[in-house]
Design brief:
Length: about 200
DNA sequence: CCCTGATTCGC
DNA sequence: GCGAATCAGG
């Protein structure tokens, strides 16, 4: 595949958003993360500041381990306009984090609008008719959860949210996810239930 | 081991 | 220009 305008555009957009090279490569398809990084450099947009959040990046002045013929042309000291506010008015009665309804797969649906307040919480189809043992194992597993933050999640970490998203008491499971699944074994057990296993609702 | 970006260099 | 291989690191 080649770098069509469209693909370059996607690359630029995602890179600006702070997506990793591998994520971009997967999105584009037909290229490796190396290709993406190479292109990024050729496009001259290596310094990813502004929109996204910074990774663990140091501003080491290009450590030249070996004898480098070319000298550093421009020692440009540039200020870093850090901007990371986290305004978060805590709602009085936040909805409990309970996914259990994974319908999409492409974009991670981890961002769920926080329900401000009010009596009628939307019907949460979870934590209700789940095999007791599954629930038990979940409880158990969550003790050992790696407590990853959103940005620490990868393709193979369990993305099950634990705790209250409206507080600091919130993290993601982070245990090894089942191949091809978004959750670890325990959480898959409560997330993906055969329709047959839930046959009540007699009302 | 998983992952990240950076750099080099043959093509 | 491209990107695999490699490097350097978390």
């Amino acid at each position: 595949m080649s770098w069509t305008d469209e693909r370059v555009e996607t690359l630029k957009k995602m890179w600006a958003e702070g997506q990793s090279a591998s994520q971009i490569a997967k999105e584009l398809g037909g290229v490796t993360r190396n290709a993406v990084i190479g292109k990024v450099h050729r496009l001259g947009l290596s310094n990813r500041v502004g929109g996204g959040k910074d990774e663990g990046e140091d501003e080491a002045p290009a450590v030249a381990a070996k004898a480098e013929p070319a000298a550093r042309p421009a020692p440009e000291p540039r200020p870093e306009p850090m901007a990371a506010a986290a305004p978060r008015p805590a709602p009085e009665r936040p909805a409990a984090a309970a996914p259990a309804a994974p319908s999409n797969v492409t974009p991670l649906p981890i961002r769920k609008a926080i329900i401000p307040a009010g009596q009628p919480l939307p019907p949460q189809p979870s934590a209700n008719e789940i095999s007791p043992e599954a629930l038990a194992s979940v409880r158990e597993v969550e003790k050992h959860a790696k407590r990853l933050t959103l940005m620490e999640l990868t393709e193979r970490t369990c993305k099950w949210p634990i705790g209250d998203p409206a507080t600091d008491d919130f993290w993601f499971c982070g245990l090894p996810s089942l191949p091809g699944k978004p959750y670890c074994e325990a959480h898959v057990g409560v997330a993906f239930q055969p329709m047959s296993a839930r046959r009540d609702r007699r009302r």
